[in-house]
Amino acid sequence: MAEGRGALLLVFLVSVAATATFAAGKKRAYIVYMNAAHKPAVQATHEEWYQAHLQSLSIDPARHLLYAYSAAARGFAALLHPDHVDLLRRHPSVLNLHPDTRLTLHTTRSPQFLGLTPWPAGIRRSFDSTATTDVIIGVLDTGVWPESPSFDDAGLPAVPSRWRGACEPGVDFSPSLCNRKLVGARSFNRGFHAAEDEGREVRVSARDTDGHGTHTASTAAGAAVANASLLGYASGVARGMAPGARIAAYKVCWSNGCYGSDILAGIDQAIADGVDILSLSLGGSSAPFSRDPVAVGAFSAVQHGIFVSCSAGNSGPARSSLTNTAPWVATIGAGTLDRDFPAYVQLSNGERFAGLSLSSEEEGIVNQTLAVVYGMGVQSGSNSSKFCMPGTLDPNAVRGKVVLCDRGINARVEKGQVVKDAGGAGMILANGAANGEELVADSHLLPTVAVGAKNGDLIREHISSSSNPTVTLSFRGTVLGVQPSPVVAAFSSRGPNMVVPELLKPDLIGPGVNILAGWTGSTGPTGLAKDNRRSPFNIMSVLPFLAGTSMSCPHISGVAALLKAAHPDWSPSAIKSALMTTAYTEDNTGAPLVDAAGGSAATPWSYGSGHVDPQKALSPGLIYDIKTDDYVAFLCSLDYPAGHIQAISQSPNTNCSRRLSNPGNLNYPSFSVVFGRKSRRIVKFNRELTNVGVPSSVYFVNVSGPPTVKVSVKPTKLVFSRIGQKLSYKVSFASSTTKAGEAREVAFGWISWMNKEHRVRSPVSFRWWQW
After folding, report:
1. Where does the record locate the signal sequence feature (predicted)?
2. Which of 9, 49, 243, 332 could form an SS bridge with 550, CB 3.0 to 4.6 Å?
3. Same domain, residue pair 238 and 350
């Protein structure tokens, strides 16, 4: 079932409890001077305005606002954390601020959820904001809305002199719109034009009229913006993962999607311009790497020392639904945040069902009891009306009522428009079995509550069995601290990897559900032509029209920028290894990560190595490094024609004189063991670890796996004497089964190298072919 119009597939902005914010750091009194001309008319007094600023930082004015000045100055004094100070300093309404002689103190949701804000002692120095200003993230997407407050360059130093990019003029896009934050903007559309038989006119420009590119770019490196929200939802301070990093936008996606030639041209230009990180929240293919322009372009980027982050895809929970599976890219899946937007459906029999909504209590039908209908189509017996397809609802049957619509076939937000056009007063959007209990937030054109498959079935049953069914919809706004979280998103694409079964993908997951970030001024939150609302921010996960895990990918891109700033000499594979081997697999209740698709325990086929942990990735202890020649040997093991390998490696001298005995022998931070015929009941791999921790360190191996497999690692202890030293180990996996069917089709385990300071952990997937 399709909910997208392309192959595209995440800064989460939210307020945080004041007590949690101040617990991590020492507070101090600050005096903040405000530009009175910026006071919004909705706030009657300056004091209310000052209070709103504090509330946007999740600071309780009643407890922390010391003074609201009116005669001596326009401003206020308040107790702030240091991070709050930095955010206020960058806000356009703040003229100046300085500490009082007594105390010190500073937040947003996504960085806070990832442990990036407030900075713990030591971490702040390592993730140095000055160093990140030298890092440039190239975002290949639908372009950029340069007027977004997320691209404000206040406080940033001059653009690095090594930068060779440009801000290209285009329709409704002047080069002057670029600045020290948005350092480049280009567009590529020749492939799109060539594929358009109708020869439709395209406004050639890097300007983002879709919203997706602005959202992903601001998620990766957006500047701090106070009072950010989507129509009041997820309010707080918005900032990207690496707010000090620079952004270069490459528009490669147009109205009908993204063409390989345009993507490759964008990567080509980004390399020439001098980016450090490439973020591609768009779908690759499941074809061999030689036919995948993303894989080909990314190989060259990695050769130039550029870290490449790609979305895994949005075709979960189906097995083998991954895209972007090349080992030289980071393949990113999606998980949830600990934030939600609860809403409720109460039936006439008194039963109450929890759901999710971005509707507000001001939208007219809150707490009103209204008739509810399902399948009221203009054509009797047609199932199209149950999906609320355009033109299928009978206005006489739905006018003034709440309509239940099944999720699937057409876009979620389009269903809301169909209901509204037919005169419906509200909508219940019910998941089917394919979507399970996972809920995604959309800002529908009418009051809407989304419910999971189980609740949807119960509501359908009530409607069909009642003579006069009614419902009452209610909305709770934004709620933080949701448990369990993170949860693996049902839509996140899964393994096993069908391109190379011996390579475990995805690599890891990051926040990717219901993410608030910058948005285009060209369209409303739904992206529908009839949506006249405008907001500088939007909440997205699975876009109403676009498909893919795009919200999680830029989170990893931004975190990679932080690691690049902290370790400028690390290779792209070193950065990826650090992200993977330090990822976690337990939620905020201490239980194993859950899969939203069915509520059972998730596996490495859905989360790879686990959920990203930026703080631990900063100091992984050991890394699995990979050189370009190793990737060529990997390609040779796939038995690709020599010409195909040369096209990827851009080396005419590649002759496969060196090849891996097994594609799984690549020095990768994870393992995928495939047992085949009887002769393949034993699989052996070699790995090499590089010490990036303390000079003298000792690591011991810890192994877990299914009872049907004996795992042997030699040696069991690694003794390092210096930083940069490399030590190897061998691992043997022996299946103890003698007949087909005695082993599970798939199982999982872990290989960890541990000492008191570090745990360098690698997931292992086991798969048995039928003998």
Report:
1. 1-23
2. 9
3. no
498 and 362 assigned to the same domain: no
- In a domain, residue 750? The reply is yes
- Is 514 in the same domain as 445? no
**Of the listed 286, 550, 571, 577, which one is catalytic?**
550
Domain that holds residue 712: 667-768
pTM for this model (two decimals): 0.83
pLDDT of 610 reads: 98
**DSSP structural state of residue 757:** S
What Rg value do the Cα atoms of the chain yield, rounded?
Answer: 26
Quick: pLDDT tens for 335-375: 999 999 999 999 999 999 999 999 865 666 777 899 999 99
Q: Are 501 and 326 in contact (CB under 8 A)?
A: no
Q: Of 83, 134, 141, 276, which one is the catalytic site residue?
A: 141
- Do 324 and 452 fall into the same domain? no
What is the rounded CA–CA span in Å between residue 115 and residue 511?
12
Domain check: are 142 and 290 in the same one?
Answer: yes
12 located within any domain: no
Question: Does the structure show a pLDDT above 90 at 39?
Answer: no
Closest CA to 757 of 686, 692, 662: 692
Percent of the chain with pLDDT over 90: 58
The pLDDT, as a whole number, for residue 542 is: 56
User: Is 60 annotated as catalytic?
Assistant: no
What's the pLDDT score for residue 760? Answer: 98
- Among the candidates 107, 122, 143, a domain finishes at 107
Looking up residue 36, the CATH number of its domain turns out to be: 3.30.70
600 and 536 together in one domain: yes
Q: Which of 212, 215, 555, 758 is catalytic?
A: 212
Q: Are residues 545 and 468 in the same domain?
A: no
Euclidean distance between CA atoms 187 and 205, whole angstroms: 6
The residue type of 481 is G
Helices 293-303/628-637 angle, 10° precision: 150
767 against 2, higher pLDDT:
767
Number of domain units in the chain = 5
Domain identity same for 329 and 348: no
For residue 60, how many C-alpha atoms fall within 13 Å in the half-sphere facing its CB?
8
Chosen domain end from 107, 123, 146:
107
Residue 316 confidence (pLDDT): 85
Q: At what angle do helices 293-303 and 642-649 cross, to 10 degrees?
A: 50
Mean pLDDT of 441-465: 94
What is the three-state SS of 388-457?
CCCCCECHHHHCCCEEEEECECECHHHHHHHHHHCCCCEEEEECCCCCCCCCCCCCCCCCEEEECHHHHH
Active site residue 212: yes
| pLDDT tens per residue, range 370-390 | 999 999 887 776 789 999 999
**Residue 456, pLDDT score:** 96
* 161 in catalytic set: no
The H or E element that residue 247 is part of is strand 246-251
Q: Is residue 593 part of a domain?
A: yes
Which of 291-323 are b and which e, b meaning 16 or more Cβ less than 10 Å from the residue's Cβ? ebbbbbbbbbbbbeebbbbbbbbbbbbeeebbb
For the stretch 227-275, pLDDT in tens is 888 888 888 888 999 999 999 999 999 887 888 878 888 998 999 999 9
Cβ-based neighbour number of residue 635 at 10 Å:
28
β-strand 717-720 against 342-347: which pairing, if any?
unpaired
| 486 closest CA partner among 364, 600, 584, 631 | 584
What pLDDT sits at residue 698? 98
Looking at the domain assignment, is residue 10 inside a domain?
Answer: no
Instruction: Give the pairing type, strands 330-335 and 339-340.
Output: unpaired
The CATH number given to whatever domain includes residue 720 is 2.60.40.2310
CA distance linking residue 394 with residue 414, whole number of Å: 16
Q: Using CA atoms, how far apart are residues 624 and 688, in angstroms rounded to an integer? A: 6
* Mean pLDDT of the region 211-221: 94
Mean pLDDT of the 100-110 span: 37
